[in-house]
Amino acid sequence: MTHANAATPKRRQKPSLRRSSANPRNQTGPRYSVGLPPKVASQVERYAETVDTSMSKAIAALVRLGLDSQEARKREFFKRLRENLANDDPKQQDRMVDEFRTLILGR
Question: Between the N and C ends of the chain, which has fewer C-beta atoms within 10 Å?
Answer without folding.
Answer: N
